[in-house]
Structures are given as structure tokens and as C-alpha cells.
Design goal:
By secondary structure, the protein is α+β, with helices and mostly antiparallel strands. It has two helices and six strands, in the order E-E-E-E-H-H-E-E. The protein has a single domain (about 10-115), classed as GTP Cyclohydrolase I, domain 2 (2-Layer Sandwich). The strands form two sheets. Strands 2-3-5-6 form a four-stranded antiparallel beta sheet, covered by helices on one side. Strands 1-4 form a two-stranded antiparallel sheet. It is found in: Cytoplasm. This is NADPH-dependent 7-cyano-7-deazaguanine reductase.
Amino acid sequence: MPSTPAKELEIFHNPTPSRDYLIHMEIPEFTCLCPKTGQPDFATLILDYIPDKRCVELKSLKLYIWSYRNEGAFHEAVTNRIVDDLAAALKPRYLRLTAKFYVRGGIFTTVVAEHRKSGWKPLLAVELGAFENQSPTRC
């Protein structure tokens, strides 16, 4: 039986809730409709989140994203709605969605929306030294 779009997001328990770690997803096939013209708008969505107790199941995320295909929505509204829905389902420590819309009328639009769990503070980044490019031979 073929899959159909759905607004429900399936979650599963975070296998390592004691650690902050980043989940990065790139979704290059997002489509919705322009609410003014009805023409399709295409975007690549970049989802980064640090889970708390829950993670999103990938197939349900795909079907959720697919559910916007025939909906009219302004770029800003649809990006924030997706963040709100993901934040409600996952209750993550941190979530950022970057929506990079393809050109429309000579204008590229990028919308970035974030959610932070109240009281959560990121750990300081560890800066590692970089190695110089190695020559294939040693001199």
C-alpha cells in the first residue's frame, strides 16, 4: 500500500538522553503552494536539533513534510508552523529549521526559526587544532 501524506509525527525514545548531541537532516524536496498565485514553491529544509527524551522517526517526518505539498502558505508562516509542530512533538533541548526557498520573482528567500527548551544552555564548544595538509611524501 502506498504512503500518503500525514500531519502526525511519530517519535521514539532518545537512546542517549544523558548527552547533548546534534541530529542534522537535509530535506531537499519540500513543496508548498504560493498563497497568492497557487504556484508551487520549492525549498530545501535543514533541520538541526538536540533531542531531550524524544527523537522523530524519519518516515513520519517525510510524510509530514509531504503533507504541505498542496497547501498555500507564506514562507515565514510555514517555516514557523513546522518548528512549532516539531517542538510540540519532540520537546527538544534545541531545534533550528532553516528553510531555503528557491528563486521566485528573482528573489531567494531563507527563513530561520528556532526553539529552545526553557533553561537549557548549550555546552561550550571544544576547539580542536587543525592539521596542515599533508604532502604525499615526507621531506
